[in-house]
Amino acid sequence: MSEVCSFCGNTDFKAKSVDYIYRRGEKMLIVNRVPCTECTYCGERYYEADVLAKIESDFEAIENGTREAQRRLSVPVEDFSRLVG
Ligand SMILES: [Zn+2]
To answer: Fewest CB within 10 angstroms: 2, 38, 56, 73, which?
Structure first.
């Protein structure tokens, strides 16, 4: 874990649990309650390598059908230039 934020130089962090969106092309996996450390100044989040590896292997398992996700969402997608109002 980095002790100095590589974005803002702050040295104060707090442990958090957040929703992580893993994305590969058009495919995504949302993982809830992922442990991370967040910079208290700029909000940059740092994850342990084994946490990210676990998410990536879960994504692979769901993609190749060896594991079923807990639940699935249907997500609408928009381009900003098409928005009204
Ligand atoms: Zn920072």
So the answer is: 73
CA dist 48 and 37 (Å) reads 9
For ligand 1, the distance from its centroid to the CA atom of residue 16, given in whole angstroms, is 14
Cα 9 to middle of ligand 1, angstroms: 6
Residues in contact with 48: Cβ distance below 8 Å, sequence separation at least 6, in sequence order: 1, 35
Whether 75 is covered by a domain: the verdict is: no
Residue-level pLDDT, tens digit, the chain, 85 residues: 458 999 999 999 999 999 999 999 999 999 999 999 999 999 999 999 999 999 999 999 999 999 999 999 999 999 999 999 8
pTM of the model: 0.85
Tell me the CATH number at 60: 3.10.20.860
Q: Is there a domain that residue 58 lies in?
A: yes
Task: Determine the structural domain holding residue 5 and report its residue range.
Answer: 1-67
